[in-house]
Every structure is written in structure tokens, then in C-alpha cells.
Design goal:
flat, 4Fe4S-binding_SPASM_dom, Iron-sulfur cluster protein, Aldolase_TIM, rSAM_sf
Length: about 230
């Protein structure tokens, strides 16, 4: 019986549609980029297709493949998003699997990730039985340039909280522990709060009027240090 691991499409070719949208193969109905916005090199080396390759390498079905009439997934249960596993790095950029977990307070995803639009934005990851007490969630966030320091707090399941500040554009990392209390819960709920939600126009950056708190790029949940 064929399996996802036998698929070689994401390593060998891309399908380009007449409107410039790009798909990982002829069976997928979901885009991983558009040539009107991204170069073919950016798409080929982008997080969306790299994430798809990782899933296939682990014989897992990526959301990009859901409902595709492909022999490599026929007969398999692909109606549900494969939950994250210990060691996974979950990306929140456009077309990446993280879109399934953004639950409240987020703008439309962009190529690099997603901006929050409220003072609090939420992510809900389905828990799996391999999350370990003492594991760590490394959350990569992105800040906009700001005249005043912006405080960012990350809370998991209304218990563990880590706070930091930023005043310049760029990515920064917050590491938060996974406690026994969280391991026993059905979902890993992450709340990201920003003290100042202002538009880039209000910050004097550009003409973008969207209210923006903080951006998220990825979450990496990994084992406790030995």
C-alpha cells in the first residue's frame, strides 16, 4: 500500500497556475505561494514546502494534502489536521500548518508569520500524549519598531507566564515551560498579550492602518534538557 513517505513531489517539481499561484503538486488544491508576490526561489525554499517535506519524511499527512485524490494518501484518515508532536517546529506563515491553531485576535497570515490585532491573541494546540512535564515551548515572536517599550506576555493555560519587552523591529524568542498541569490538559492554550496595539501608521513606519500588537513566526516544543 502506498504511503505519504513515498511521495517525491515536493523535492522534484511545483505546479504553477495561470494566475501565478503555486501548488506543491497537481493533486493539491492549496497554494504555497504566488509568483506575483514571491520569487520561485523563495517559494521553493519557503517554510510551507519545507514543512510539507518534513511531514512526508515522517510519513504524516500535511493539511496541504487534505482531500487530494493522490494514491499516497488514499484510504488513510486525512480529515483531521495531524496534531503537533514533541520536537515539531510549528510555523505560522502563509500556507503553513500553524493556521489551524490561530484561534483569536490575529490578522491574515503573511509569508513570514502573522501579526496580532488585539491586546490578546490566542493559539490552541491539541495536546498529545507525548508532551512531557518539563518540556519547553520556544515561541519566536516579531516586534515592530516603537517609540515606547512594548511589553509582551505569553501565558500557557492560564498558569505559566513569561514577560519581555521590545522597542525595535525584529524577531525575539520567549521560552516557556510545560508543567505537569498543562501536560494533563486536552489543549495547550497560549495567550500572547501586547501592552500597545498601534498601527504602523501611528508608529510612523508606513501607511498601514491595521492595529498591530506583536507577530508570531513559530513555536518549537522540545524535550527537557538532560
Amino acid at each position: 500500500m502506498a504511503s505519504p513517505r513515498q511521495c517525491t513531489a515536493p523535492w522534484t517539481w511545483l505546479q504553477i497556475m495561470t494566475d501565478g499561484s503555486v501548488r506543491p503538486c497537481c493533486f493539491s488544491k492549496r497554494n504555497i505561494g504566488n509568483l506575483q508576490n514571491n520569487s520561485i526561489e523563495d517559494i521553493w525554499n519557503g517554510e510551507a514546502i519545507k514543512e510539507l517535506r518534513r511531514y512526508i519524511g515522517h510519513n504524516r499527512i500535511h493539511p496541504l494534502c487534505h482531500n487530494a485524490p493522490c494514491k499516497f494518501i488514499q484510504g488513510m484518515d486525512y480529515d483531521n489536521v495531524d496534531p503537533p508532536r514533541l520536537g515539531d517546529r510549528i510555523f505560522f506563515g502563509q500556507y503553513a500548518v500553524g493556521s489551524a491553531y490561530l484561534t483569536k485576535g490575529w490578522h491574515t497570515q503573511e509569508y513570514w508569520g502573522c501579526w496580532s490585532k488585539d491586546e490578546q491573541a490566542k493559539i490552541s494546540l491539541p495536546n498529545t500524549d507525548n508532551l512531557l512535564d518539563g518540556a519547553t515551548a520556544d515561541i519566536e515572536l516579531r516586534g515592530l519598531k516603537s517609540e515606547c517599550s512594548v511589553s509582551v506576555s505569553v501565558t500557557t493555560n492560564a498558569s505559566e507566564t513569561v514577560t519581555t519587552e521590545f522597542s525595535h523591529f525584529g524577531n525575539f524568542l520567549i521560552s516557556i515551560p510545560i508543567s505537569k498541569k498543562i501536560v494533563d490538559m486536552t489543549y495547550l492554550d497560549i495567550t500572547i498579550a501586547a501592552s500597545h496595539v498601534l498601527s504602523p501608521a501611528q508608529r510612523g513606519i508606513n501607511n498601514d492602518e491595521r492595529p498591530i500588537g506583536v507577530g508570531i513566526t513559530s513555536i518549537h516544543i522540545h524535550k527537557p534538557s538532560p
